[in-house]
Amino acid sequence: MHTPIPSPPGLPFVGNVDAIDKDLPLQSLHLLAKQYGDIYQLTMFGDTRIIVNSSALMSEVSDEKRFAKKIAANSNQLRNAAGDGLFTSDSLTSIEDRLLMPIFTPASVCNIADDMLDIVSQLVLKWERFGANTVIDVASDFSRVTLDTICLTAMSYRLNSFYRESLHPFALAMADFLLESTKRGARSQLVQSALIAENAKYDADQKTLFSVADDILAQRRANPTDRQDILNILMYGVDKETGRGLPEKTIQYNVRHETTSGMLVFAVYYLLTSPETLRKLREEIDTKIGGRLFTTTDLNTLPYLIAVMRETLRLSPTAPARTVAPFEDVTIGGKYFVRKGQSIIVNTYDCQRDRKVWGDDADEFKPERMLDGKYEALPGGAFAWQEGQIALVTILQHFDLVMDDPHYELQLKQTLSIKPKNFNIRATPRKDKPRLFAVPSINKQAAAKA
After folding, report:
1. Where are the transmembrane segments (predicted)?
2. What does the pLDDT read at residue 191?
3. Do 366 and 312 contact (CB within 8 A), yes or no?
4. Which of 144, 232, 347, 371 is the least crowded, having the fewest Cβ atoms under 10 Å away?
5. pLDDT (0 to 100) of residue 224
6. In CATH, what is the architecture of 1-77+320-351?
7. CA dihedral 158, 162, 165, 168 (to 10 degrees)
8. Which of 126, 85, 369 is nearest to 249 (CA)?
9. Which pLDDT tens digit goes with each residue over 373-382?
C-alpha cells in the first residue's frame, strides 16, 4: 500500500501558488521541507509537482535508467533566448553535447588557464587601484570575471567589463532575463499576458542578447582563426554520429551561455565568516605557492582549497534545484507512488544538508569534512572548477579581505541560480606580496617546471 504524499492546504483553482515566494522560491521550498520532511507536493493551476528533500530520495531519482531530466517551468522560459542549448537541453545525446564535451575535459580546460588568469588579473588590478577604503560589490565583480572568462575562453571575444563603470549591456540583459524567467515559471499564461511592461522589457533583453551573439559571429566570420575554441567547434564542427553540423540559430543560442559566479561569492562569504578556515587556506597557499605565479600543476596540490570549494557547493549549490520525471509509474522511498511523467523537483539545497548524511552540524561550514577523498562525487565541472581555483588563489595571494558590514547576515538573491544579496567587502593589498602588472603564462611555467 502506498503512503499519500503530504501537501500544504491550497486555494481553489490556483492551488499552492501563495506558498511560494515569487522573489525567493528557494526559501519557500526550504521552509516547507522543514515542515513536511523528506517529501511533499505542491499543486499550482492544476499542475502537481513533487519535491524531494533528502539525500536518499535525491540518489534514487537520479537513476538515469528510471528517471529523465525534465525542463522546469522557469528553465523552459530560457528557451526564449537560449534555445535548445546545453543548460536547457532535455536531449542528452544532442549534437551540441557530442561536439562540445571533448573541450570540457580537464586536459582541454588546462590549456585555457592563461585566459582565465588574464581576466582574474584585471579584477586584481581594479581592486589594487581602488584601494582598501573602496566598498566592493563582490557579486558584481565576480559576474564580470565569469562573463569575461567564458567569452574569452570560449569565443576569443573580449567583453572588457573591467574597462567600464557599469556592467556590460550583455551582463545587464542576462541578469534581468534570468530573473524574469524565474518569475515567469510561477505565473499562469493569463497573468503573464497582462504584464505588458514586463513583457516588453523581456523582449528587449532578448534582443540585446541576440545582438551580442550576432556581433561575435560576425567578427569570427570576418576574422577566422585556427584556434579550436567553442565557437569554432559550433560553427564548423561536424557530428560523427549524424554527419551534421549545427544550424545558424543553434549557434546563436549557444553563444549566450554564462558560467556562474555564485560559488566564488559564497566561498568568500563563508571564508570571511570562518576566520580559522580562512587562516588555514591562506597558510596552504602561502606555504605551497607563496607570492610566485602558480602553475596549473600547483592547483592540484591544494587539498584544503578543494575542500573549501566542495563545502561551499554543498551548502550553497548555485543551481539549488532540478527537475526529473519517471519513464514509468514508480514507487520511491519504498512507499510513495509517482506516475509516469510526473514532475519531481530535487531540492538540492536541502538534500545536501541532510543530517542523516552530514550529521547534526550539517548547516555549518566545515571544509574538513571534504578532506581525505571524501565526497569526491560532489559537483564541479572542470571548467568552473579551474576558474574558481585560479580566482581564489590569486585573490588570497594579493589581498586581505574583510566584510564591509561586520554584522552582515546572509541574504539570498535568486534567479535560476542563487547568490548572496547585498554582500560587500573591502580588499587591502597585502604588503608582503608583489603587485601584478603583467600576466605571464602559467601553462608555460608548468611545462618548464615539468
Report:
1. none
2. 75
3. no
4. 371
5. 85
6. 2-Layer Sandwich (3.30)
7. 30
8. 85
9. 666 655 557 7
